[in-house]
Design goal:
The protein has 240 residues and is of the alpha/beta class. The protein is built from 6 helices and 10 strands. Strand 4 and strand 5 form a beta hairpin.
Length: 240
C-alpha cells in the first residue's frame, strides 16, 4: 500500500474571490521512502499534506491512503483514521504549554483510548529513545527550540503511525541541526511498512530524501529520485 492522489483539486474562498490552490494534483508517496514536497510559498504543499492527514476537507478527486478514500470520509470517520495512520509534525510544534514533555507526547495515545498511566510511560520511553531523558518533566517554555522539536517528533511517532507528515521541520534550524532532525526522522519514521512526507523550503536537506517532488502553482511539476540518500552527518541524539 502507499499514498496515492489523483486529480486532487482544492479551492478557498477569500474576500477577493475564489483561489484555486490545488489544480489537479497527481501525487504518490511509496512505503519505505522519505518523500520531500518542495516548491515556492503558496504552491499548495501544506494544503496537500493537510488533506492527506484529514485536517482539511472540501477537495475533489481521489486520495487513497493505505486503502482509505480520505476525501470521501465523514468528519466522524476521519478521527480514527488519523489516530491509526497519521503522525503530523507542525511547523510551530503546537505543544500544550501546561503539559510536561512526557505529557505532551502521551496525548495521542490517550486520544486513542490508552489509559493515562500507560500512555505517560510510553511517552517517557519514546523521549528517552530520542535522548530526552533529562527533560521528561519540563514544560515547553523550559526547553530549547531543538528540544521542543524533538518532543513534537516524539508526539507524532508515539502511536507508531504508518505515515509521518512534516511541515517545514527544519525551518528554524541551522544546517547542522536540520540534518540531525532529518536523520532522526529517517531512523524512526521510515520502514518497509511506513512512509514519511516532508514539506520544506530548505534545499540543504533535499539530499536526505529518497524522492523530491516539486510543486508549482498547484500542480506537480517534476519528481526527482535520489538513488543513494546521504544525510552527510553522523547521528547523535544528544547533539540536537
Amino acid at each position: 500500500m502507499s499514498v496515492k492522489c489523483k486529480n486532487v483539486k482544492m479551492s478557498f474562498k477569500t474576500a477577493a474571490g475564489t483561489v484555486d490552490v490545488l489544480k489537479g494534483v497527481d501525487f504518490e508517496a511509496p512505503m519505505g521512502k522519505l518523500t520531500m514536497l518542495v516548491g515556492p510559498s503558496g504552491c499548495g504543499k501544506t494544503t496537500l499534506i493537510s488533506l492527506i492527514a484529514g485536517l482539511l476537507r472540501g477537495a475533489s478527486g481521489a486520495m487513497d491512503v493505505f486503502g482509505n478514500e480520505v476525501l470521501a470520509m465523514s468528519a466522524a470517520m476521519l478521527v480514527p483514521y488519523r489516530l491509526k495512520n497519521i503522525g503530523f509534525i507542525f511547523q510551530q510544534y503546537n505543544l500544550l504549554a501546561g503539559l510536561t514533555a512526557s505529557e505532551n507526547v502521551a496525548v495521542p495515545l490517550v486520544a486513542s483510548g490508552v489509559g493515562w498511566p500507560a500512555a505517560l510511560e510510553c511517552g517517557q520511553k519514546t523521549l528517552e529513545q530520542m535522548g530526552m531523558g533529562a527533560h521528561l518533566n519540563k514544560l515547553p517554555s523550559q526547553l530549547s527550540g531543538g528540544q521542543q522539536q524533538r518532543v513534537a517528533i516524539a508526539r507524532a511517532l508515539v502511536h507508531q503511525p504508518r505515515l509521518l507528515l512534516c511541515d517545514e521541520p527544519t525551518a528554524a534550524l541551522d544546517g547542522h541541526s536540520g540534518k540531525l532532525v532529518m536523520n532522526l526522522l529517517k531512523e524512526l519514521a521510515v520502514a518497509d511498512d511506513r512512509a514519511a512526507i516532508v514539506v520544506t523550503h530548505d534545499p540543504r536537506i533535499y539530499g536526505c530524501a529518497d524522492r523530491v517532488v516539486h510543486m508549482e502553482d498547484g500542480l506537480i511539476a517534476k519528481v526527482d529520485s535520489i538513488v543513494s540518500p546521504d544525510l552527510g552527518i553522523d547521528f547523535d541524539k544528544s547533539s540536537l
